[in-house]
Design a protein that fits this description.
Blueprint lengths: L8 H4 L3 H14 L10 H4 L12 H31 L2
Helix pairs in contact: 2-4
Length: 88
């Protein structure tokens, strides 16, 4: 990875920087409840590029919004804590 060759972060990440920036914009439009599961398929009107951000947090926030994402992360943290306590 050398920036002098004209490669930037977007080329290095196979275009994911663009979809991440778009996803952040979509999240800001519907922060509480999100757009719905697999919404990227119809939010990307031309269907080009990656069909999902390949970033779990961004994808959950876009699909479910802050309310459901917070609940899911809370449940995952509780499950992880119980698993860690049960380990020998």
């Amino acid at each position: 990875f050398r920036t002098s060759d004209g490669w930037g972060a977007n080329q290095f990440t196979s275009g994911r920087m663009d979809i991440w920036l778009q996803t952040i914009g979509w999240i800001s439009e519907r922060p509480l409840l999100g757009w719905g599961e697999s919404a990227t398929l119809w939010l990307l009107k031309d269907g080009a590029g990656h069909q999902q951000p390949h970033n779990a947090l961004l994808q959950m926030l876009q699909s479910w919004g802050v309310v459901a994402t917070a609940a899911a992360l809370f449940l995952a943290a509780r499950a992880a804590a119980r698993i860690l306590v049960a380990l020998p």
